Amino acid sequence: MSAWSVLGSLEAVPALDRPDLLGEPVAHALKLLDPADAALVGVAEIDPGLADTAAFCEAYGSPLDGSANCVVVAGRRGDETRYAACLVLATTRADVNGLVRKRLNARKASFAPMDDAVARSGMEYGGITPIGLPEDWPVLVDAAVAAAPAVVIGSGVRHSKLALPGELTTRLRNAEVLEALGKRTMEP
Question: I need a surface site. Which of 49, 78, 99, 164 has the fewest CB within 10 A?
Answer without folding.
Answer: 78
